[in-house]
């Protein structure tokens, strides 16, 4: 039995404040919003993280992320957005079903930049790190 809470939202088993649904994805409001219009976009199929999402689902999924962002932009006229996903427990991922957070941002909202969530300056030269990544297959 699938106990994944976002699979249950995708199947309609549990309710959510849905914004829209496509063949591949659903956008709905976060139940504990950090900002007005805080929205989650999930693929309908279960994938734990971005790496698990089948290649053919990636395009339709990101199209839904773009569409949700554009709808929120029109409806709520924020000054900007913070967009992203937590991948793995260490990053703060609590729900093991891929989800894209759309966080509308306003001047003076007390938030920070996405990259400020970590402060772990590399000790290796960037060229060495880049070479390691390039060599990975
Ligand atoms: P994360 O830490 O990236 O795994 O975030 C999971 C997010 O899902 C949190 O912001 C929760 O508030 C949100 N969430 C959990 N359950 C629900 C639900 N039933 N409906 C809407 N959002 C949810
Ligand atoms: Zn799931």
UniProtKB/TrEMBL annotation:
A motif (Histidine triad motif) lies at residues 97-101. PROSITE patterns: HIT_1, HIT_2. The active site is at 99 (tele-amp-histidine intermediate). Residues 5-112 form the HIT domain. Pfam families: HIT (PF01230). GO terms for molecular function: catalytic activity. InterPro entries: HINT, Histidine_triad_CS, Histidine_triad_HIT, HIT-like, HIT-like_sf. It comes from the Bacteria. PANTHER family: ADENOSINE 5'-MONOPHOSPHORAMIDASE HNT1, HIT FAMILY PROTEIN 1. This is HIT domain-containing protein. It comes from Candidatus Ryanbacteria bacterium RIFCSPLOWO2_02_FULL_47_14.
